[in-house]
C-alpha cells in the first residue's frame, strides 16, 4: 500500500512529513477534523508510515455493508449516545496490548464546537502513554506527524503545548475547526 499511497498523495499535491516516534504505545491525536475527507487522507498517510493504528469510530460505521472495512483498518466501534465509561475501556485495551497506536480526533465531530473532547487526554494520562500530534494542513498541503508530549496530568498546561502546535494548521473546511481547549466542567 505504501508504494501506492505516497505517489497518489503526491499526485494530489500533498506532502507527507515527520517521523513516527518509536513508542510501542501512544495516543495519536489528529486535528483539525473538519471534513469526511480527513479520514481518507489520514488513512492514506497511515499506509505511508506503515502504521498499525487503532481508532475509535461511531458504532454505526461498523454495520454492513462496510463494517468489515472499518475494522480491517483498525476501527474500534464506540457507542457515543450513552455513558459507558469509554475512557476506562480504552485504557484497559491499551494496557492489555503489547503495542497500540490509538488515533483519536479530539474534536469528536466535523462541526464547529467551542472545545475539544477531553477523552484523548484522560486515556493517555490513565494509560501512562505519550500523546503524538498528527495533522493535516491545507495551507501547506502537508500531512504527517509532528511533536509529542508525555501528559503531566496538568491538563491546562499540556493543552497550551497542544494548542501551540496546532494553532497554524488549517483543515479542509477551516470554518468548522473547533477551538483548541478543553471544556471546563467546574
From TrEMBL:
<feature type="domain" description="Phospholipid/glycerol acyltransferase">
    <location>
        <begin position="27"/>
        <end position="136"/>
    </location>
</feature>
<protein>
    <submittedName>
        <fullName>Lysophospholipid acyltransferase family protein</fullName>
    </submittedName>
</protein>
<keyword id="KW-0808">Transferase</keyword>
<comment type="pathway">
    <text>Lipid metabolism.</text>
</comment>
<dbReference type="GO" id="GO:0016746">
    <property type="term" value="F:acyltransferase activity"/>
</dbReference>
<dbReference type="Pfam" id="PF01553">
    <property type="entry name" value="Acyltransferase"/>
</dbReference>
<dbReference type="InterPro" id="IPR002123">
    <property type="entry name" value="Plipid/glycerol_acylTrfase"/>
</dbReference>
<keyword id="KW-0012">Acyltransferase</keyword>
